[in-house]
Write a structure and sequence with these properties.
single chain, mainly alpha, 4 helices, globular
Length: 71
Amino acid sequence: GDEPALFYNAACAYALAGRPEAAFDFLRQATVAGYTNVTAIRADADLVSLHVGSATPLKGARGRALNRALR
């Protein structure tokens, strides 16, 4: 169904709102629901604040965990 896309869109919204932990939680839910487009996650400007190397170290660690989950 549409669940993976809904979770992905929620992740984008939370990332844009400056809520990285919620964004990562929704990305995780998207992957569990079947979202596998890693290229979109890496290229999506809405998610740039979550990329490894961003200001908050937690983001980097969670980003690596998400990358492992999407393989």
